[in-house]
Amino acid sequence: MTRPTDRQLAVAGIIVLLLAVLAVVADADGADRVDRLSQARLERAAERAASTGGIRSSRYADATPWMRRLARELVERAFPRGSRQTALCIVDRESGFNPGAISRTDDHGLPQINRPSHPWVNVRRIVVDPVYAVAVMVRLSHRGRDWGPWGWAC
User: Fold this and answer.
1) Do 130 and 78 form a contact (C-beta atoms < 8 A)?
2) Which listed site, 31, 88, 125, 148, has its alpha carbon 20 to 30 Å from 46?
3) What residues contact 153, with CB distance under 8 A and at least 6 apart?
4) pLDDT of residue 29
């Protein structure tokens, strides 16, 4: 049996390194594919992200990119095709897809629900539970047929 040359070892090492890089890149590309998650997994991932540092503060858009992506997917799935873009626009303008957003005017969560105007909404929950926040938005908008609670259109 012959011993591999230094050149053969170097080529083999480069091939192994390239395969490892390709595996990492392929995994990273699929890691943010929240659109491929089942609804139950999406909701669990959003709740987990919100409770483990995905919300950085109560400021506009101050959530991790992963948290914002999960929140966006929750909104996309919650509304029918004809009202989906308006719902996404409202959440983007109101909270920047930060579930923990709280405004100076006492508006809370992804859709920035005004506490005095909607006392039935659990404001403690709406800023830590993006699934609940989206459900509140769906209810207030009558599944995207009435954007009146936000007072303006996108």
Assistant:
1) no
2) 148
3) 86, 147
4) 39
CA–CA–CA angle 118, 122, 127 (5° rounding):
105
The pair of structure tokens assigned to 1 is 């049996």
Give the number of other CB atoms < 10 A from CB of residue 102.
20
Which tens digits make up the pLDDT trace of 9-68? Answer: 677 677 766 555 444 443 333 457 999 999 999 999 999 999 999 999 999 999 999 999
Query: What local confidence, expressed as pLDDT, does residue 153 receive?
Result: 65
Distance CA(57)–CA(102), nearest Å, equals 9
**DSSP conformation letters of 27-95:** HHHHHT-GGGS-HHHHHHHHHHHHHTTSB--SSTT-B-HHHHHHHHHHHHHHS-HHHHHHHHHHHHHHH
